[in-house]
Design brief:
By secondary structure, the chain is α/β, with parallel strands linked by helices. The longest helix is centred in the middle third of the chain and has 18 residues. It is globular, with a radius of gyration of 20 Å. Strand 7 and strand 8 form a beta hairpin. It contains 14 helices and eleven strands. The protein is 44% helix and 18% strand. The protein folds into two domains: 170 residues, Rossmann fold (3-Layer(aba) Sandwich), CATH 3.40.50; 183 residues, Dehydroquinate synthase-like, alpha domain. Bound molecules: nicotinamide-adenine-dinucleotide, the ligand O=C(O)C(=O)C[C@@H](O)[C@H](O)[C@H](O)COP(=O)(O)O and zinc ion (ZN). Zinc ion (ZN) binds next to helix 11. The site of zinc ion has 5 residues, from helix 11. It catalyses: 7-phospho-2-dehydro-3-deoxy-D-arabino-heptonate = 3-dehydroquinate + phosphate. This is 3-dehydroquinate synthase. Belongs to the sugar phosphate cyclases superfamily. Dehydroquinate synthase family.
């Protein structure tokens, strides 16, 4: 017998339906109920999860669905217009209609792509997220931000298209390489700094344990971070305001990812980006020294990076200009006015940006 899963509600907004995020073990039995009366199901998965994708496809076929598997490249290589076009072709060739359903199984890159394909195919079909990384569970699969990258930057094309449900099967984390597991901790730590400091206390108490799925607080950390995300997106699906707090650390992070040709994991870049944002807050006199220093300590304790090459600043600054929070020529950053007090900093003085950069420059 497995315990009943935890169910976290995400409210519908802007005309979208509410849905649940389930966290537990052996959740795939929940899939048919979510798929509902569709005739066809497309299981979109990365190369690394070929066996999982095929097992899921077979399972759905055994339940009577016309099930196809669409294999896409691992990680950010999947978040391109070319791969999206490949998926559209597969859907077209299987006569995929508006009542059919896409299931995205994988990390955040895969679910971002799957959601985007679902948002654009026939102007929108239902989709279900089955995240298999820490980062996917606590952040990417929840909230309906879907998208792909372009040559100019990260996530520049996309749509708000919430899933019909999210199944976080913690058993999937057993096969995740430690580097990827730890990368996901960055978004959990982000949730700690912007909204739920108990997360930071749990990680700081035993950072080594936080690095593994066997740690005593794994489920609690994941559920706490999901609750933060669910609460925020429930009130502001389309990022008209408060949702911007989820972008803490991301302005610089996305520029680093692009600069590294997406060879850095998103979470690693977010770790550096949060230290930068904390320094910006400190330099502006908005954030106390202890909270700013706490960023470096907790991130380093779990093995995340807190510095980046110092010679890249002009390129990073240039890329930050296309960040989605930018308005005209005004760069905007999420900073902290204190622990769990996120706020927007509008058009900071370039000298302040440079000073914050000096604090993260390796
Ligand atoms: N939509 C959102 O709100 C949102 C939020 C946060 C991040 N993101 C996006 O998520 C992406 C990062 O996601 P990620 O950190 O999950 O990385 P990822 O999706 O790139 O996955 C990392 C690697 O792990 C493999 N993998 C996935 N699950 C596995 C498993 N269980 N066992 C073994 N290998 C597995 C993947 O194939 C990939 O090679 C970025 O593109 C980021 O922009 C989106
Ligand atoms: O859900 C959100 O809103 C976020 O900003 C969560 C981020 O962790 C995530 O990386 C998101 O994809 C970034 O979105 P973007 O709008 O800056 O591309
Ligand atoms: Zn992120």
């Amino acid at each position: 017998m497995t315990d009943a899963p935890t169910r976290i509600q995400v409210a519908g907004s802007a005309g979208t339906a509410p849905y649940e995020v389930l966290v537990g073990q052996q959740l795939l039995g929940e899939l048919p109920a979510l798929v509902g009366p569709a005739k066809r199901v497309a299981v979109l998965h990365p190369e690394a999860l070929a066996a999982t994708g095929e097992a899921l496809r077979e399972d759905l076929a055994a339940q009577g669905y016309e099930a196809i598997a669409i294999q896409v490249p691992n990680a950010e290589e999947a978040k391109t217009a070319e791969v999206a076009a490949y998926c559209w072709k597969a859907l077209g060739q299987s006569n995929f209609t508006r009542t059919d359903v896409i299931v995205g199984v994988g990390g955040g890159a895969t679910t971002d792509l799957a959601g985007f394909v679902a948002a654009t195919w026939l102007r929108g079909v239902r989709w279900i997220a089955v995240p298999t990384t820490v980062l996917g569970m606590v952040d990417a699969a929840v909230g309906g931000k879907t998208g792909i990258n372009t040559a100019e930057g990260k996530n520049l094309v996309g749509s708000f298209h919430p899933p019909a449900g999210v199944l976080c099967d913690l058993a999937a984390l057993e096969s995740l390489p430690v580097h990827d597991y730890v990368s996901g901790l960055a978004e959990i730590i982000k949730a700690g700094f912007i909204a739920d400091p108990a997360i930071l206390d749990l990680i700081e108490a035993d950072p080594e344990a936080a690095r593994t799925p066997q740690g005593p607080h794994t489920a609690e950390l994941i559920e706490r971070a999901i609750r933060v995300k669910a609460e925020v997106v429930s009130g502001d699906l389309k990022e008209a305001g408060r949702r911007e707090i989820l972008n803490y650390g991301h302005t610089l992070a996305h520029a680093i990812e692009k600069n590294e040709r997406y060879e850095w994991r998103h979470g690693a870049a977010v770790a550096v980006g949060m230290v930068f944002a904390a320094e910006l807050g400190r330099i502006a006199g908005r954030l106390d020294d202890a909270t700013a220093d706490r960023h470096r300590m907790v991130l380093q304790a779990v093995g995340l990076p807190v510095t980046y090459r110092g010679d890249q600043w002009p390129k990073l600054l240039d890329t930050m200009k296309v960040d989605k929070k930018t308005r005209g020529d005004r760069l905007r950053f999420i900073v902290l006015d204190g622990l769990a007090k996120p706020a927007v900093m509008e058009a900071p003085d370039p000298a302040m940006l440079l000073a914050a950069h000096a604090e993260i420059a390796a």
